[in-house]
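Q: Sequence in, structure out?
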Amino acid sequence: MSVVRNTGTNTDNSVSQYQFSETADAATKELGETQFLELLVAQLNNQNPLDPQDNTEFIAQLAQLSTVEGINKLNTSLESILSDYQTSQALRGATLVGRSVIVEGSKAVVDTAKTFNGSLVLPASSSKVFVDVYDASGTPVDRIELGEQAAGTVNFMWDGQDSSGNTLSPGTYTFKAQATYDGESQDLTTFLPATVDTVTLGQNGSEMVLNLAGVGSVTLSQVQVIGQ
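A: Exactly. Output:
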């Protein structure tokens, strides 16, 4: 908080000749609360008895001091809250590393030695729902037939095998779901599991970002389910 002094020739050096500023430069000096009050008292002690300090001006000076003091306290409180929030984010982020989450997307790292579970959202009932599976090169390897399904969330499983019954290698696979309704084939939204590799903490109140193995980055609000 800096002070700019009136350099005019007026000999009535009242407190009103001082203005508060949020920034300081080489040409100004710092005026704290104590100095402000000392100056105010000196002004009152040395005021012209024939032309005393105007009450309105006096109250305005006190209000100015109160406002600056309030802003300083508010800034201190906000800094404390931000520090506590960042600490909380760090602790929360540490607990997520290595855990499985469910997010919207089409890619997932699959351990083909185990059954893979995913889900899709079906806006309307359909007599034909299926999920095509593609390997990392984009080659189709299998189709999961789900048949007739009612509208809503539909779960599906993949055994890690191709259409010939051969177990495929572990790796990243793409799942594209489709259904026939309203007289045409429609793409569907899928939700797949992923493992949290690392966590990027949000800065200055921004949202935490989860870096998922083989998938990419998503914000915490995009996570549908946090597993074990």
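The helical segments are 33-45, 55-96.
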